[in-house]
């Protein structure tokens, strides 16, 4: 069989939607200009726990432009059917305006709907709420944890006792918020019993199912649309209460309603990366061979839902070690429910493990890379499965060479330039490769162009572009001849746009659909007496630039256009599908990286500047190198944030988030970001999925914070086991 020529996949294309984005023509959730839309503004609770004793809406209702004030006093009872899907964690989701209880500071207690945004904002300021407040519990280190989820292999206690070298380390990791540029927003419109929402979401199907459960509608009665998403990092992975409020406001007023969360409201209106208290005990022999690890993880969750993430995973499989035990305890607090944030769980767990490995290396006088190599497993120690591909050794070698690791002083405080202490650090990163069932509709039109549709999202990684590349090669068309549409729940279903699974899942469905359409066309040609390809073996035919031919004999062939015209076909259409991993449980499949950082720390002021970073990635096949670079840079920037800046601060007296704005919640800006470079060990993983990709979006953040923390230690001799690493901690 002649393979399809690959022209688009692997090419460093610019975004196919780039022009729309930079000319302002890409339409984000709140920019949908829906005729007759009114504005909804939330009133949020100013206590951290308790009950609403009175809610006076008289002044608001009299204000100019205000149409309606909705609260638990007048809201209809909503069905809130059970919905185990839609990424709802176990528990009871927040039911907006269904009772007088306040579960966290900032919870929506009323919504003001008005003809203009200003009128709605003014109205919201006039609503008088009185509370019977209780002391909220928001401090992870003070609260009572729930029952642990345990993991064990071997005998970790005994292993630790017998270890020649033992470390007992305690880490504190701050809560982080996603802070995408585009705020969360929803426009909702009812047409009779049918609901359409334009919503910032990473999963139109999940939001559709949740709204249908909340309002008691058949799924077909709800349509969710999101052609563009201005960043997400996980904040759009479930349907949050404000989306329900927007739909409720529209239903109660009989007008389409728009609700945009303010930046402040984003801090309690959507989820966050939970804070952790993490104790790790680690034992090894004198040559650095790991023997045992005991992990005690306490993570915050809300009082009403139990959010779980894969924080334990890296500690189970990153290094060869016979004895591991883990206890992962959720600590219910009076906060809103957390959610996955880029590199979820793995970024947290890897910070701890990779910081500890650096401590162990220092303790034993072994180079940190050498220590990791001595503990590199031959198969996945958590399940004894062979790795599909694991090129972590190569990540270390290539990274060390390209970064100039030999220039690192093994002695902390070994390098100084004026006031600056210079240090280098590295860490390994891992993120499991997942994929799920997805479908795609592919239509080849008589004019020789194609249309591909899926319900996927593009929160920024470049789904539009990379999927177009896959489709173009499979169809044998140029990228320009393919239109890729996403972001509509009426399109064929896809899994959440998260967990690094979009390329593997949606891409495989697109590949399947495009392969099928191309084969249909080839079959049509070889069986058509009027075709120059009549009688040729179908397997010998390839398509390039829309022309069907046999390789080596380009003269004999014809275009899709002429083929379809002669056969009186307006189009060919199929539904492509991907059923999920074909051989689940046969291999351990993950993406890996080695991340290197060089920092300068002001010896007097404790100021940390990252000077340069390098990430080397084993993420399988790279579909779109330019977009992959953007992903890696973004991941490293996010990791700089996690390491040095990001920290959601709660006032435990009343549960208020005190830095709920982008002036006080610090994220890296240009001056914080030095030269960052990414190298890919490009290569297909044949076990992962038909495209051979292992996912990139998450792994690029994993390992960044520990690489920086380890560089800070190398520079200063100070080991900071708290994120973010602040100047105060270094003084
Ligand atoms: Mo990613 S945390 O699944 O958006």
From TrEMBL:
Q: Where is the Aldehyde oxidase/xanthine dehydrogenase a/b hammerhead domain?
A: 23-135
Q: Which Pfam families match?
A: Ald_Xan_dh_C, MoCoBD_1, MoCoBD_2
GO molecular function list: iron ion binding; oxidoreductase activity
Kindly give the Gene3D superfamilies that the UniProt entry links to this protein: Aldehyde oxidase/xanthine dehydrogenase, a/b hammerhead, Aldehyde oxidase/xanthine dehydrogenase, molybdopterin binding domain
Among InterPro entries, the record links this protein to: Ald_Oxase/Xan_DH_a/b (IPR000674), Ald_Oxase/Xan_DH_a/b_sf (IPR036856), Ald_Oxase/xanthine_DH-like (IPR016208), AldOxase/xan_DH_MoCoBD1 (IPR008274), AldOxase/xan_DH_MoCoBD2 (IPR046867), AldOxase/xan_DH_Mopterin-bd_sf (IPR037165)
Identify this protein by name.
Answer: 4-hydroxybenzoyl-CoA reductase, alpha subunit
